[in-house]
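Quick check before the chapter quiz. The format below is the same one you will see on the exam, so make sure you can read both the input and the output lines.
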Amino acid sequence: MRIKLNPYALLILSITLLINSPDTLWGQTSAGQPVTSSGTEFMVPKKEVNGRLIGQEDVLIQEVVITDSSRQYRRLDVGITGTLEGWIVKEGPRSNHFASHPEFDFTQIGNVYRRFPGILRYEASKGTAVTLIYPDAGSEWNRKLFVTVHGSGGSFFEGTLEPWNENYDPAWPLADISPYERLMLNKGYAMAKTRRNAALGSPGDYSVTLDDGEILPGRNLNIHAGLLLGMIQLTENILKDRLGEKPLRTYWYGHSGGGINGRLVNFVPGLNLDETGEPIIDGFLNHDTGGGRYIPILEENGVDTLFVTEEQRRQFVKTIEIPHLLYSNRRDLRGRSLPKWMSPVMILNQRDSLRILKEKGLGEKVRMYEVRGVSHFPEGHYSEAELAFQFSLGKDSNVALLDLSGLMDGLIDLLDNWVEEDMVPPATKSDALELGDVDEDGINENEAVALPEVACPLGLYFQYPPGVAEQIGNMFSGFASFDGQSLEPLDGRGVFVDMNLNRYLDHRESVDQAWHRLGLLKPGERFSRTEYQACVEAAVGNLKEDRLITERVAARYIQEASEADFPGQ
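Here is the expected output.
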């Protein structure tokens, strides 16, 4: 379905999100008064670095019971204060980063300047926190944990990141939980939403003390694996205390910068191992990983040393990558001193990463499902609170985001079944012939994923919707219907949207004309609801056969096809 963001209809939108999600989790919610306590007994042990103990120093917990029409949950907002070791650069790209692994972070963003080691102290009062939600008393817990890691963004300095105990709103107790996170809870997972200071374009919130004593302000924690893994192990300790045992499995969902961090955890040898040598994270869902990074190459003196031993390859855990084809370009990578094996184009890096992993013998541990018709931000990604913030930025009804909640519903199950039951997922789906499954006639039988809105289009999704600032317009999408009357629209840059691919501005096609051009109608056939429903049923059938959507989501798509309004009619 398509949801348009209208700044004058936030309440309606919030209700729509709940109704149209694959599973409506929350009914009428209520919550008691939160109770605050110390959580220092759950801290991860510190480690010594240059004679100094580094790690978590203080943990505070704000706990509340939340009840909806049928379920009861515990919500714990956990504020964390502590220190981290890492590296900075004093100039060049990402100079506000405090990086745990500069050989990836700075190298693959094109920063060739000198790196300096130091210590950063982060604070719960400036937003470093985790929100943990689980079934009260564990009665419906599946004994697994899903951790979500947001992308770049969030600044206490700019007011886009709240102190640890101000994310919870008693009047709207789940406003900050996204539809994807609700899916995880509805499937019985405990869910931990991590929060970190990760803004790219502003001074960071923390100072770094270098090894020589120099203090440099303005750093953030966008790409720091140590911070996130410490949060996760702390969360597991809390669950053991509250529910009697640590999770049997812990999964990672990361969007954009969250996916970059996910790759980092999975790539660096030994990083994803606990004190017993077992994986901390058992599987990854990396969603539209920022810039297509990191590429699985680590050069030392010009020689690639990554995944060259059997032990390194054994440590790599199963991963599903979900690139968005409409978000193919990262302008901020152009002109950089990138390694020769990197591209400034996101989708090329995504594809090269998969190709390299296959060449290194890891093809059976990774799948990539490219998705058509969606830019960086899909529907389902935002919580209601985040949507409200987007409204404050001036988004209007020109923004239309393709809803990926139904696909995410299937992918969560796909990853779990792959890890738990070794149920092999479908082959990679890509519009790149070298990655798809090409038959003897050269036809790609595993093209990118086309949800019914794209496989059976009533219009076209496009980047740079009008009304969104150009510097971020490529991350969002607009929608132009096949109405058979209007001129093809102009995007937010003033460039016409070539809906019929004839390279000049003209009138929009009708749905009938567009479907003939796309081969969805045979000569002499006319578009009708019968044809539309048949197309949707076929698209849904293919997705269901590949286990990319569930039966519940399939039924929803088919029901919507019987009710859809057709443009120009």
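If your answer matched, good. DSSP finds 14 helices and 22 strands in the chain.
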